[in-house]
Amino acid sequence: MAMSEDGDAGELTHTTDDGEVQMVDVGDKPDSKRRAVAAGEIHLQPSTIEAIREDQVGKGDVLATARVGAIQAVKHTWETIPMCHQIPITNVDTDFTLREDRIELEVVVETTGKTGCEMEALEGVTTGLNVVWDMVKAVEKDENGQYPETGIENVRVLEKEKRRAE
After folding, report:
1. What's the pTM value of the predicted model, to 2 decimals?
2. Cα 16 to Cα 24: distance, rounded to the nearest angstrom
3. Known binding site: residues?
4. Total number of domains constituting the chain
5. What exactly does this protein do (predicted)?
6. Residues forming the annotated binding site for substrate?
7. 61 flagged as catalytic
């Protein structure tokens, strides 16, 4: 069974009865305070993680650049996900955790509006991790120019909340 935008069982909301793609009309919905948390990770060589820790990556500060990329992606989700509404982002938090062989990223997005912000949180995670990859790709490549140890994985929504706006 399909789930609606608010998590209720029901019909697919981005298609008409004829199967045509449509944007959901949220005009009559009340404003709500909304929050979504998404996470993911990028697997890297331990030497790359150490270079990031020591700020020894030639392109610059990897995590600062990835943080900016994640925030920009959150703000521009409506431009890249065809059926997303442009929503007022009230807050974005990014949290990077460096492990021995990976970097974990958690993105929290908050808004007050008529629709949720989980797609924005997911876009923040995937873009933030893609920026990390872009910043370290020179040291992650093997002798054949491939990335055998590099991979973005486990991207998911951890939670979403909706509370009536005051």
Report:
1. 0.84
2. 10
3. 83-85, 119-120
4. 1
5. Catalyzes the conversion of (8S)-3',8-cyclo-7,8-dihydroguanosine 5'-triphosphate to cyclic pyranopterin monophosphate (cPMP).
6. 83-85, 119-120
7. no
